[in-house]
Amino acid sequence: MFINDICIIQCFYGTNVLQIEAAKDALSIMLKLEPTPQDWVFVEAQKNKNDFQFEYLKKNGIKYIKKYIKDENEYLFLKEQLWNIGVQNTKCNYLCFIDSD
Question: Among 93, 94, 100, 17, which residue's Cα sits nearest to residue 62?
Answer without folding.
Answer: 100
